[in-house]
Amino acid sequence: MPQHILVTGPSRSGKSEWAERLAEKLEQPVIYVATALENPDDAEWQQRIEQHRRRRPSHWQTLSVSYDLCATIEQAKPPHCLLIDSLGTWVANGLEQDNETWQGITTRLLKSTQQASVDLIFVAEETGWGVVPAYPLGRLFRDRLGHLIRQLGAIANTTYLVTGGHVLNLSLLGEPLTNIDYD
């Protein structure tokens, strides 16, 4: 039965590195699903993308999937493992969607995840630990990502929190919430 793993935590905590280590341990061909939109005019952003590329093993396949993550999951076949990095940039790429359309997209993503025939490792940024953003688009991003992480955490086999350079297996240490309120 395929594993669904969620790796979450703050920026620069080591989430991606932990997810990469988990993918290597599965001993399957890895497809790295990069959700970032490249921007040649933003040298610092391109440097971040390049840092991720250099760290990945050369035998891993890379797919750039900025929008249709659901189709990528639905089309994946064993014995592959998909490492999806990251949900934060994927959510940011879809911020122009109205709430009804976004709800349909996330519903499809959750269904695709539950029906996936391959192992999935999701990397997601925790953004809701600080101040509530003072502008509407920032609040929309934070809320959409927070809801998605919570929903994926509810269906993941294992959820890890990476913070302060340490990894915590929340599935062993925590107790899942049974009722999910999306308001």
Automatic annotation (TrEMBL):
Record GO terms (molecular function): adenosylcobinamide kinase activity; ATP binding; cobinamide phosphate guanylyltransferase activity; GTP binding
Enzyme Commission number(s) from the entry: 2.7.1.156, 2.7.7.62
UniProt keyword annotations, A-Z: ATP-binding, Cobalamin biosynthesis, GTP-binding, Kinase, Nucleotide-binding, Nucleotidyltransferase, Transferase
InterPro entries: CobU/CobP, P-loop_NTPase
Enzymatic reactions: adenosylcob(III)inamide phosphate + GTP + H(+) = adenosylcob(III)inamide-GDP + diphosphate; adenosylcob(III)inamide + ATP = adenosylcob(III)inamide phosphate + ADP + H(+); adenosylcob(III)inamide + GTP = adenosylcob(III)inamide phosphate + GDP + H(+)
Residues engaged in binding GTP: 9-16, 34-36, 53-56, 85
Pathway the protein acts in: Cofactor biosynthesis; adenosylcobalamin biosynthesis; adenosylcobalamin from cob(II)yrinate a,c-diamide: step 6/7; Cofactor biosynthesis; adenosylcobalamin biosynthesis; adenosylcobalamin from cob(II)yrinate a,c-diamide: step 5/7
GO biological process: cobalamin biosynthetic process
Superkingdom of source: Bacteria
Matching SUPFAM superfamilies: P-loop containing nucleoside triphosphate hydrolases (SSF52540)
Active site: 52 (gmp-histidine intermediate)
Family classification: Belongs to the CobU/CobP family.
Biological role: Catalyzes ATP-dependent phosphorylation of adenosylcobinamide and addition of GMP to adenosylcobinamide phosphate.
Listed name of the protein: Adenosylcobinamide kinase
UniProt lineage: Bacteria, Bacillati, Cyanobacteriota, Cyanophyceae, Oscillatoriophycideae
Gene field: cobU
